[in-house]
Design goal:
The protein has 55 residues and is an all-alpha fold. The protein has 1 helix and no strands. It is a single-pass membrane protein. Keywords: ATP synthesis, CF(0), Hydrogen ion transport, Ion transport, Membrane, Mitochondrion, Transmembrane, Transmembrane helix, Transport. It is found in: Mitochondrion membrane.
């Protein structure tokens, strides 16, 4: 069972995380989003309490 021997799997995991962190992640973060967030003022709505018939 390969799960009992962590020796090769640790290096595979470490290599994949280093690849993601050093190569793939900076390329993904360099993209700009198409819909950038705007500074809209939030509107507050007035909420009314429910009127329960049995109270």
């Amino acid at each position: 069972m390969p799960q009992l021997n962590p020796n090769p799997w640790f290096y595979i995991m470490l290599t994949s995380w280093l690849t993601f962190s050093l190569i793939i992640q900076p390329k993904l973060l360099s993209f700009t989003s198409a819909n950038s967030p705007s500074n809209k003022t939030s509107t507050t709505t007035q909420t009314l309490p429910w009127i329960w018939p049995w109270t």
